Amino acid sequence: MRYTGKVVGGLIGMFLGPLGALAGVLLGHQVDEHLDREDAQLPGPEDLAAISERFFRATFRVMGYLAKADGRVSEQEISAARAVMAELRLDAPRVQQAIECFTAGKQSGFDLDVELGDLGRACAGRPDLVRVFIEIQVRAALSGNNLDGPVRPLVNRIAGRVGVSPFEVAHIEAVLRIRGGSFRYAPAGAEPRISEAQKIEQAYKVLEAAPGDSDQDIVKSYRRQLSRHHPDKLKANGLPESMIEHAKQRTQQIIEAYELIRERRGI
Q1: What angle do CA 145, 148, 150 make, to 5 degrees?
Q2: pLDDT for 176-185, tens place per residue?
Q3: 91-95, 101-105, 124-128, 146-150: segment of lowest average pLDDT
Q4: What is the pTM of this model?
Q5: From the centroid of its chain, how far is CA 108?
Q6: C-alpha angle 168-172-174 in degrees, rounded to nearest 5
Q7: Residues 66 and 137: beta-carbon distance below 8 Å
Q8: What is the SS3 string spanning 156-179?
Q9: How far apart, in whole angstroms, are the C-alpha atoms of residue 1 and residue 18?
Q10: Residues 185 and 88 sit within 8 Å (Cβ to Cβ)
C-alpha cells in the first residue's frame, strides 16, 4: 500500500496537534510531488513497448557494427551472432528481425552515434537495462573475435556513450569469460576443468566481491547483483521478452556463485 501526501499529513497532525498539522500539510504536499515524479518516470504499456523495440534493434545493429570493426565480418563472428540469438531462444520471426538489424549495422552508412543516442534516451534512468545491452555486446564479441583488434576500444567507447564505465566493462568481460565448474553461463566452447580454488575466485568475481569482505558485505553484494539482473525488474524497465533468457542465465550464475561462497564461509 502506498500512502498519499494527504494521508501522511493527516497522521502527523493527529499526533502533533495544530503545529503538527501545518507541518503535515507542507510535508504532505512534498510527498505528493515526489510520488507524482515517481509515477511520471514509470513507463506506460506503449512506452514500454517502444523501449523494448528500440533495445532489440540497437542490440543487433550495434552487434553488426562491432563485427565489421576490422573492415570485414568473419564466419566466426556471424556464428557468434547466431549463437547469441539461439541462446536467447528467439523465435523464428525474431531471429529474422535480428538478422536484418545485424545486417543494417554492418553497412557503411550505419550511424553508430545516432543509434546510441536513441538508445540512451529510451533507456534514460534505467542503468541496469543499458548494462544488459553491454553484456550482450561483450558476449557476442568474445565469441566472435575474443575482443581483439579494434573491437575492445570500440566496446569501451560504446559503453561510455550509454553510461557504463570501463571498470564495469572489465567486470562484465571477466564474468563472461568464466567457464566450467558450477557456472554454466559462458561463451560457447569447451569447458576446461578448474580447481575448487579457481571456482571460489570466479564466484567472488561474479558477485563483484572480494575474499576479504565480511559476510554482511557478501550478502549485500549478492543482493545487489540479484536485483540488477532480476528478470522481472528488467522486463518492467523495457527488456524485450525475447531477451529475458539472458537475465535468467545471469541470475542463475549469481545464485550459484553465492551458494558456493556461502557454503565455503558457513554463512
Answers
A1: 115
A2: 888 533 444 4
A3: 124-128
A4: 0.71
A5: 28
A6: 115
A7: yes
A8: HHHHHHCCCCHHHHHHHHHHHCCC
A9: 27
A10: no
